[in-house]
Amino acid sequence: MTTFGERLFSAFTSAGHLCVGIDPHPYLLDRWGLADSAEGVREFGLRVVDAAGGRAGIVKPQVAFFERHGSAGFAALEKVLGAARASGLVVIADVKRGDLGTSVEAYGQAWLTPGSPLEADAMTVSAYQGLGSLDEPWRLALASGKGLFVLAATSNPESYETQTAIVGRGIHAGLTVAASIVDGVVRSNAVATPSLLGSLGVVLGATVDLADFGIVPGTLAATPILAPGFGHQGAQLSDIRELYGAAAGNVLVSSSRGILDAGPEGIATAIATQVRDLAEVYAA
Amino acid sequence: MTTFGERLFSAFTSAGHLCVGIDPHPYLLDRWGLADSAEGVREFGLRVVDAAGGRAGIVKPQVAFFERHGSAGFAALEKVLGAARASGLVVIADVKRGDLGTSVEAYGQAWLTPGSPLEADAMTVSAYQGLGSLDEPWRLALASGKGLFVLAATSNPESYETQTAIVGRGIHAGLTVAASIVDGVVRSNAVATPSLLGSLGVVLGATVDLADFGIVPGTLAATPILAPGFGHQGAQLSDIRELYGAAAGNVLVSSSRGILDAGPEGIATAIATQVRDLAEVYAA
Fold first, then answer.
1. Chain B contact for A14, CB < 8 A?
2. Region of A168 on the Ramachandran plot (φ > 0 left; ψ -120 to 50 alpha; else beta)
3. Residue A195 has what pLDDT?
4. In this complex, which of B68, B106, B180 lies closest to A109 when CB atoms are compared?
5. Residue to substitute from B74, B129, B187, interface A, most A β-carbons within 10 A
6. Which long-range contacts link B112-118 to residues 24+ away (Cβ below 8 Å)?
């Protein structure tokens, strides 16, 4: 079985590091001439997938914008996920789910079970209830060639209070909460897939000063990094090596509005341009 | 407009403190003679609502078990939410959503907008990205008489690392992460609904030693407390006053398997029994 890390590595090699966000904001639906409805988000998502296929390697639907439309929105999302996977894109469901025990196991089953209606290649998760609360989805991911991305250091200033708080006891005593999550992820990857790119990733906002969180990018040399914040939120593509150092090769450069603002006529060109710009950064 | 806190207070007065979990675990579906399918979770949910109506005041569907079945599972959940609200129950969608900006706003719209397909009376949320990241759903809740319950101190041991970490800067410097969330919630309630039961609640596991987190129950005198962990997980109903002190009157005593294990024939009796036992605890 191919692991998620291997699939991701292959996508980096063949199509580069761009991860195209599928974020059907109401304002974007309006700009795209689509209704703010389940049909609108389906059409939006399918057009983004169509433009990304053959140009980029990775897409990331923001599930909140589908969930707004209830079960009909989820039916639309199923179509979008299916189309994206059928066209060979690596699909990350941006759901930020988290819970305990059988509940978090059920979230893992929803998004990571081969053949399930909402099947994706990976999902984003939240570890407010501890990294250990995610053991069950992590086990599911490993068993079926899927991946997880755990929120670690995010770009919004109000996250600072929680994510820089200092752990008091246990093996991570003295680390920030964000660094303790990064350390746990790195260790899990080292056990599961030594010497390969791991299948358990972290979310590190591109506008974040990692030193503030005590995160050393060099430790992430075998860990995928999902990095929102390029373009619209202010991080520059040319800063990738400076931001992530030895881990730059593992970064999924997530871009949503910076691409989606181009509208249905301009999106294919916007994707191709960002893929080319990124390839130049990585070739330099 | 009636606030969520007022509705909750009214439910406490008329029907007591029991919050009946609607958790269609696969093992429970099997025990209930139902298929592990969208139809199964719909039937399960509708039967629990039917048994709870007129006996208890509050229900809490665990959304992960519906999400397992994709859009069809959400269509089932819509039926369950609608039936519960139609029978006058206070409905808390246990979704533990969290995100930033327009994404978390979209989650709030999904669950708290009057007339939306997934409309509930309140939702559970996660503040890994900071309590401030939840401002937009909180604004939506206040505007439409809805509520939020923010995860603070949860019952699983692996949550300890994050939730007892010490905040380093700002107004909550020196507090644990869990206590900083509790403090932020208490302050928000004091501003939004002074002198009434607030509409912004916290989740505090009933098996948690609040002192370990630096949480003083007395500060929660106007804040709803959603407390899972009674019954199956080991907390005793008779301990409520000892656990929550002056805030005991605000506790939603969440019970899932302890009721659902009774099966379709026994559930109405199980609910009535727990309501009566709780009334005795509160009368003592």
1. no
2. alpha
3. 78
4. B68
5. B129
6. B112/B137, B112/B140, B112/B141, B112/B144, B112/B146, B113/B140, B113/B144, B114/B144, B116/A68, B116/A70, B117/A69, B117/A70, B117/A71, B117/A72, B117/B78, B118/A67, B118/A70, B118/A71, B118/B74, B118/B77, B118/B78, B118/B81, B118/B93
Residue B121: both structure tokens together: 């009376």
Distance between CA B260 and CA A175 in Å, rounded?
A: 41
Is the dihedral angle over the CA atoms A47, A53, A54, A57 positive or is it negative? positive
**Residues in B touching A25 (Cβ below 8 Å):** 102
Confidence of residue A284 (pLDDT cuts 50, 70, 90): confident
Q: Is B69 helix (H, G, I), strand (E, B) or coil?
A: coil
Q: Which residue of chain B is at minimal alpha-carbon distance from A118?
A: B70
The shortest C-alpha distance from B8 to chain A (Å) reads: 24
The reply to whether residue B159 touches residue A129, judged by beta carbons under 8 angstroms, is yes
Residue A17 pLDDT level (bands cut at 50, 70, 90): very high
Q: Which two tokens stand for residue A126?
A: 């939240």
- A99-156 tens-digit pLDDT: 999 999 999 999 999 999 999 999 999 999 999 999 999 999 999 999 999 999 998 8
- Cα–Cα dist B49/B68, whole Å: 20
pTM of the model: 0.98
Number of domains in chain B: 1
Q: Is B127 on the interface with A (CB under 8 A)?
A: yes
How far are the Cα atoms of B4, B20, B119 from residue B114, in angstroms, in the given order? Answer: 13, 23, 6
For residue A41, what are the domain limits? 4-283
pLDDT for A235:
85
> Could you tell me if B199 and B189 are in contact, meaning their C-beta atoms sit under 8 angstroms apart?
yes
| Inter-chain touch B128–A165, beta carbons under 8 Å | no
As beta bridge partners, residue A228 has none
Please name the member of A68, A71, A130 whose beta carbon is closest to the beta carbon of B71: A71
Q: Say which CATH number the domain at B257 has.
A: 3.20.20.70
